[in-house]
Specification:
Strand order of the largest sheet: 3-2-1-4-10-6-11-9-8
CATH class: Alpha Beta
Strand content: 15-25%
Largest sheet: 9 strands, mixed
Helix content: 25-40%
Shape: globular
Length: 271
């Protein structure tokens, strides 16, 4: 895809931040996701949706938001890192890139401002990520795993020396599972320019690899409790076990495959 950042008029003022959303058949939640983004107190951002062949009403919904930039790729072209890189190349943002799942609902009107504040107060931060909360209608296992992890994290801040600023931010200097997941993360554009998302990790794990690259170079991540989203896969115990095994395999580059036990987003069968 051609990058048009340098072709803008001199009168054009580039936004500071871009929100990159990967989407395919996301009509269940994408309207709510976009509406919550447009209600944010921080407004210096653009939204880029990368659609990989939706056959439901996703495209119509996205087009009903006139300020949202829509980029389309073929279903066969989709991989996690490729879609992210395509969206970033189509964006005009100067400083920060938010990578967000189409079925991740920002919690609160200061969601984005909290991440901007966190990264701007930490010069050696590669990015910011937040905890996940299950969707209100998520499965029991979604709620046990996501909400349970958040319950532990909320209490960890009272004793962990890595928490700062009123115990809402935690510095991550050594990789831990789930850190900087591209379900809900903000990264620095200048670091992406130096190291784009590794497209050899087509099936996932690209977020872990990108984070570890910058950890090894003296940067750290920030976990921000106020940069939280609702997110669910609607899986039961067997589905979560399969998902865990899938993530474990992504420690090495893997091709993108449609997970038959998942029916959300990119994993819906191609017609």
């Amino acid at each position: 895809m051609k990058n048009t950042r340098s072709e803008k008029s001199n009168l054009f003022t580039a936004p500071k931040t871009a929100i990159i959303i990967r989407a395919r058949n996301e009509d269940r939640w994408i309207k709510e996701t976009l509406s919550r983004l447009q209600a944010q107190s921080y407004t210096n951002f653009e939204i880029v949706v990368v659609d990989s062949g939706s056959t439901d009403s996703t495209l119509r919904i996205v087009e009903s938001f006139p300020t949202v930039k829509l980029v389309t790729i073929l279903p066969q072209e989709f991989t996690y890192p490729y879609a992210i890189n395509v969206g970033i190349k189509a964006s005009d943002a100067t400083d920060y890139l938010v990578i967000l799942s189409a079925h991740s609902l920002p919690i609160g009107e200061h969601w984005l401002q909290s991440a901007i504040d966190a990264i701007e107060s930490n010069p050696k931060a590669m990015g910011v990520y937040g905890p996940l909360r299950a969707m209100p209608d998520g499965s029991i296992m979604d709620k046990v795993i996501h909400n349970g992890a958040l319950w532990i994290e909320e209490r960890r801040r009272f004793w962990s020396e890595t928490y700062t600023r009123n115990n809402r931010l935690r510095k991550i200097s050594i990789y831990e599972g789930g850190a900087m997941g591209f379900t809900n993360a903000l990264i620095r554009r200048d670091l992406w320019e130096q190291q784009p998302i590794d497209e050899s990790y087509a099936g996932g794990g690209e977020d872990t690899v990108w984070m570890q690259y910058w950890l090894s170079r003296g940067y750290h991540a920030i976990k921000c409790l106020d940069f939280s989203v609702h997110h669910s896969h609607y899986l039961g115990p067997i589905g979560w076990y399969r998902q865990w095994r899938y993530w474990k395999n992504n420690a090495t580059p893997q091709p993108f495959v449609h997970m038959k036990y998942r029916t959300d987003g990119a994993h819906k069968p191609i017609d």
